[in-house]
Write a structure and sequence with these properties.
Layout lengths: L3 E4 L6 H9 L3 E4 L6 H10 L4 E4 L6 H5 L6 E4 L9 H6 L4 E2 L6 H16 L2 H9 L16 E5 L3 H12 L3 E5 L13 E3 L2 H4 L5 E4 L13 H4 L6 E5 L8 H10 L2 E6 L19 E3 L8 H19 L13 H5 L6
Parallel strand pairs: 1-2, 1-3, 3-4, 4-5, 6-7, 6-9, 7-8, 9-10, 10-11, 11-12
Helix pairs in contact: 1-11, 5-7
Pfam family, one: 2-Hacid_dh_C
Keywords: NAD, Oxidoreductase
Protein name: Hydroxyacid dehydrogenase
Amino acid sequence: MAFTIFVTAPKLAPAGLRILEDAGCRVLFMRDGSSAAEVEGVMASEAIDAVISRTVELSAAAIRSCPSLKVISKHGVGVPNIDVAAATAAGIPVYVTPGANAQSVAELTLGLMLATARKVAWLDGELRAGRWTRAQDGLQLGGRRLGLVGFGQVGQRVAKVALALGMEVHAFDPALSGPSPVEGVVLHDSLDALLPLADVLSLHIPLNAHTRGLFDAQRLARLPRGAILVNTARGEVVDEPALVEALRSGALFAAGLDTMAVEPLPAGSALAALPNVVLTPHVGGSTAAALEGMATGAAHNVLGFLSGRAPDPSSCVNPQVLIRNNRSIA
């Protein structure tokens, strides 16, 4: 049976598209710059079997408008743009592609750590302006303590490189207990125990009701004076006005941010005006290798489910739907 797959983006990495086309699927794409309303319009007018969701919102109205919809797969791991509650109410599983972009995100995390510690962006700007400014207050990371909040596939990759740099690595992840999955990393049983130790704090957590605004003024103040904050997770987990104040006051040495509370970054952003902030436009997973991994993972998720070969249940964010539909989650 030929399935209709709707990709809420203008394209999909060739390897993922090839998987769908080889299976005889009809693949629909959105035009560049499409809105949530346009997504709903397509879903209301087409007999769509599966959605591969990129960054455009997949609303409750869009999900309800498509009675033929059977499965959704996120092209990535974060699902704040998908109304998971609406999908669950409709009996539709929502899958993600864990690990597909972990290496690329970990590498950008390390890049931001190094760039902020050694003032790379600021020094580059000085040279381009014709000034031979040799700043003497860059930070050496070796010998300092790295704190990782969230210790999944990205955090573990970051930890291994940080250990090789000579950093002392500490981590907190409420989902982990027992020995650390990475030798040499100290696991803590609370965030409050970790923060005072973190000369560099790197965030690797999802956005949800518990993590939104988690790093407010009070928690940022628990970091050692002159610490660095790196965020390649979700911008909304940090209280940005509190972060700006900590950076202005010198309580924080610098921040490296791939994600912001509002994206794209609005004109006149206070973050963009600070010389001790390095910003990248949410490109942690935007390498050819990561895009291919997410595309092939999403394609396998939807085809596996539609063909009766259930994908790995651990990649389903609403597994109660699988139980309700008598799908195995063992």
